[in-house]
Design goal:
five-stranded mixed β-sheet, 2 domains, alpha/beta, binds zinc ion, 327 residues, single chain, 20% strand, Nucleotidyltransferase, domain 5
């Protein structure tokens, strides 16, 4: 079995591709602007062309497979993207099959949170541990759980949705339709929405001032909080508390050694990570909490590429023996 994978990170802005060795070396890296308006087939063309170009530079098509990390709710086992918020017109797209038919190489599709957890476990902060919870603080709350070296996927491969664990029976409605999810407090969209509500009810003039004529984003609320705005600080404090309550429950269930925090909002360390760290002991049992270390992601901007490659190495038949890549 080859010890290199082709990794593709499909985002709403860019598509990135690279060859990744099993030792974690990234080679032949390429990026193109996503042809969002071209529809499904234009984007499949882009992915196929990127992969072919990486093969050309590598000088061989021998690989463990092609891994694709894609946005939106997707079904890893059937390789179908159910829909993608950043890619208009994408509904039930059999992405893995479409790429595989063109490249004639096995393609595995994964969601960003689960792939990132595998990436941290194989190449990043979790290399020396078998039990970790990965959290991506971004527009939503992505996540993945590695338990005794195995990704928690569940029967349909869509498990590990930590962000949609409910922590409040009377809480806000989440984008997933459920009530009181952690993501509805700590996801970037939720922080932005709470910032908008604060402006509408005239509780924070600083958020409005920083946003100016632009949209209120989580980054705007973070800047207001950093400049001492009490309402903005409360929004982050509630988010960090929600995260501690929900993740505390998971820590009790899985007894991990490591919590790895990545995603764009992870930079707001003092606003989220420190209060999360100090609240977590209140929501875990001491003999379990004692084993946990909280660290920042070691993969940064390459998380998607590493995650896509890690998924290939993780899913290949010689490891699990049950995945049908040609199915
Ligand atoms: Zn939810």
């Amino acid at each position: 079995m080859s010890d290199v994978a082709i990794a593709v990170d499909l985002g709403g802005t860019n598509i990135r591709a690279a060859l990744v060795t099993v030792g974690g070396e990234i080679k032949h890296h390429r990026t193109v602007r996503t042809a969002v308006r071209g529809g499904v087939y234009a984007i499949v063309d882009q992915i196929v062309n990127l992969a072919e170009s990486v093969f050309d530079e590598h000088g061989s098509r021998l690989t463990a497979g092609v891994g694709v990390v894609a946005p939106g709710p997707l079904e890893p086992k059937s390789g179908i993207v159910r829909f993608a918020p950043n890619l208009p017109g994408w509904e039930n797209v059999p992405l893995a099959r479409l790429i595989q038919d063109r490249l004639e190489i096995p393609v595995v599709l994964g969601n960003d949170g689960n792939c990132a957890a595998l990436g941290e476990s194989m190449f990043g902060a979790g290399r020396d541990v078998d039990n970790l919870i990965y959290l991506a603080l971004g527009t939503g709350l992505g996540a993945g759980i590695i338990h005794h070296g195995s990704l928690i996927e569940g029967v349909a491969g869509v498990g590990g949705e930590v962000g949609h664990v409910s922590i409040d029976p009377n809480g806000s409605r989440c984008t997933c339709g459920a009530v009181g999810c952690m993501e509805a407090y700590i996801g970037g969209w939720a922080i932005a929405r709470h910032g908008e509500m604060a402006v509408h009810s005239e509780r924070s003039s600083l958020i409005q001032e920083i946003a100016g004529d632009d949209r209120i984003t989580a980054e705007v609320v973070a800047r207001a909080a950093e400049q001492g705005d009490g309402v903005a600080r409360d929004i982050f404090a509630r988010g960090a508390l929600a995260l501690a309550v929900g993740v505390g429950g998971l820590v009790n269930v899985f007894n991990p050694e490591l919590i790895v925090i990545g995603g764009g909002l992870a930079r707001a360390g003092d606003l989220i990570i420190e209060p999360f760290r100090s609240s977590l002991p209140n929501y875990t049992m001491l003999p379990i909490y004692e084993h946990v270390t909280i660290v920042q992601s070691a993969l940064g901007h390459d998380t998607g590429i590493y995650g896509a490659a890690a998924n290939v190495f993780y899913q290949r038949p010689d490891r699990t023996g049950h995945r049908e890549l040609d199915g």
